[in-house]
Amino acid sequence: MNPQAIYVTVVILIALGLIVTERVRPDLMALIVLLALWIGQIVTPAEAISGFSRPAVITIIGLFIISAGLDRMGVTQLIADRLVRLGAGSEVRLIFVCLVSGAFLSLFMSTIAAGAVILPAVVIASRETKVPASKLLIPVSFGTLLGGMATFFTTANIVVNSTLHDAGLHDLSFLDFAKTGGIVCLAGIVFMMLIGRRWLPIRTPARQASLLTKRTSPQQIESFYQLKERLWEAVVRPESPLVGKTIRESEIGARLGVTVIAIWHGHEANLKPSPDDLIAAHDILLITGREERVLRLKEKVLDIGRGGRDSFQRPGVALVEAIVAPHSSVEGRTLKELNFRKKYGMTAVALWREGRSWRTDVGLFELKFGDSLLMVGPPDKIPELQAEADFMILEGETATVTTKPAQRWTAILITVFVLGLSIFGDSAIIPVAILLGAVLMVLTNCLTMDDGYRAVEWKAVFLIAGMLPISTAMIKTGLAQQLGQWLIATLGPIGPLAVLTGIYVMTVLFVQVMSGQVTAVVIAPIGISAAQQMGISPHAAALVVAIGCSTAFLTPIAHPVNVLMIGPGGYHFKDFFRIGWALTLVCLVALLVALPLFWRV
């Protein structure tokens, strides 16, 4: 391996290590990689920044805007609602509809956007049909991932196409992805319906719908979020030194680190107490905090008891569960920084993250996509929170679509027009067609230009644009060729399909710990080079990498759409692996069957 190839290898390994350990943000790491490749004189200045002008990046930006237009016009929500209604009355039919609706929507919008659109409708269907949400949300997630294999419009697929271009090869078309990925998608859906659905978990009754539905009992909520360990009621005795003091003057929060989330003064409930509210004799304070901290309040002559059922059954009290939405502006910020309690009149009493409930200092957690927050507050504050784009509220019915039918049809026709150009036109026209669709969405008032800017996930754009020069560097230094030779030496004697299987396994393992976009950038050059040296179609290898990047079934953190389902489904880590390993093998077998039908292997 030449010195330049060694340098590129070191840069890639350091970058991947920092991304996996979350020491550096992926989008920032991508820019560091770009600069490192230029400083090491691996790529020219023009090649270093070429990612920002690639068709792949333009396509991704346009897709974000088109998806936002469809969402703003209520098109995707109407589709999701109607599809889910088709499954009502039968658990098996509802699971099938969840799979198919996820796959269908992901054909023309991002995988995570498709999952986010379907989620509220499925939660409501779960509540109404009594089918546990844990039986439905893995099918939604896996359905969107399977559908992403059969379309050009998946981010990893777009990145793989860009790598083909770097290697001097012609692009894959929409139909190339559809015919090969379509077979894999169909096989995955069949497996899920025949076998996989039987392995779907049944989680706590609290998750049969959303925790905030009116039909969910306080006992279920307390059980799921384990509130009993952190929720307390403190009765202020007349002789308490706190009588006549404000909450701030009492120093309950400052000294003990507990939170007063509500005050009952007789029959009057104050569900958003401010630091300046007075404490009176016989008031009941609803408090969250660790037992050892709360019990110290006895020094203030307060009677301490367990909160829970009675607290949540009081008049004027609403429980709301909010999920941090995709592309949310609140990621990385705390509820305290957002001044959330004052702005929305709701108090977060628990946070559910990756299978664990956190109930202490909830306001100090830096929010992450997929976090599920349990809040308490006045019922009349819920609509205000529902209107906030940064959170997904699963309370009550999905929002009523108020757009005019003509506007919805405009958004639909624009999308169909773009799909038609992408499917039946030359592959080189796809970025321009997507950009045209994005512009038409703005010109026809399906969304404003500012809405378009907000719709773009700029973190993903910078991540992809910064990482794309890696494929150029791997090709220029011969690193891709050398790794391809190693792959051939290891699996080549068994045959071409063994090499393609090795590429698939490598891709699947990578994608479980890092994003599909990064995996595509790193693995695609290796797979394409190995295929060229073996004398088989490099486009077949590119498809293997693309489909492998969507095979994120093994862990709940392998893909953002899985993360989105963890909270509402009440899932544990093992729930995804239990079904995912078999689905991963089914996709491999289907892929090995499909490739010889359309490609030289």
Index terms:
601 residues; alpha+beta; Alpha-Beta Plaits; 2 domains; five-stranded antiparallel beta sheet; 56% helix; elongated
Write the layout of secondary structure elements.
Elements: H1 3-20, H2 26-39, H3 45-48, H4 55-72, H5 75-86, H6 91-105, H7 111-129, H8 137-148, H9 155-166, H10 174-194, H11 218-225, E1 231-236, H12 247-250, H13 252-256, E2 259-265, E3 268-270, E4 284-288, H14 291-294, E5 302-306, H15 309-312, E6 318-324, H16 340-344, E7 347-353, E8 356-358, E9 372-377, H17 382-386, E10 391-393, H18 405-424, H19 430-443, H20 449-455, H21 458-476, H22 479-491, H23 496-511, H24 516-534, H25 538-549, H26 560-569, H27 573-598
Antiparallel strand pairs: 1-4, 1-5, 2-3, 2-4, 6-9, 6-10, 7-8, 7-9
Helix pairs in contact: 1-2, 2-21, 4-9, 4-19, 4-20, 5-6, 5-7, 6-7, 6-8, 6-10, 7-8, 7-26, 8-10, 8-26, 9-21, 9-24, 9-25, 10-27, 18-19, 21-24, 22-23, 22-24, 23-24, 23-25, 24-25
Instruction: Provide the number of structural domains.
Output: 2
The main sheet orders its strands as: 3-2-4-1-5
Question: Strand-residue fraction?
Answer: 5-15%
Helix content: 55-70%
Q: Which spans have pLDDT < 50 for at least 5 consecutive residues?
A: 205-218, 396-401
- Give the strand tally: 10
Mean pLDDT: 82
Instruction: Report how far the terminal alpha carbons are from each other.
Output: 28 Å
The rough form would be described as: elongated
Structural class: alpha+beta
Rg computed from alpha carbons, rounded to a whole number of angstroms: 26 Å
Number of helices in the DSSP assignment: 27
Oligomerization status of the protein chains: single chain
Largest sheet: 5 strands, antiparallel
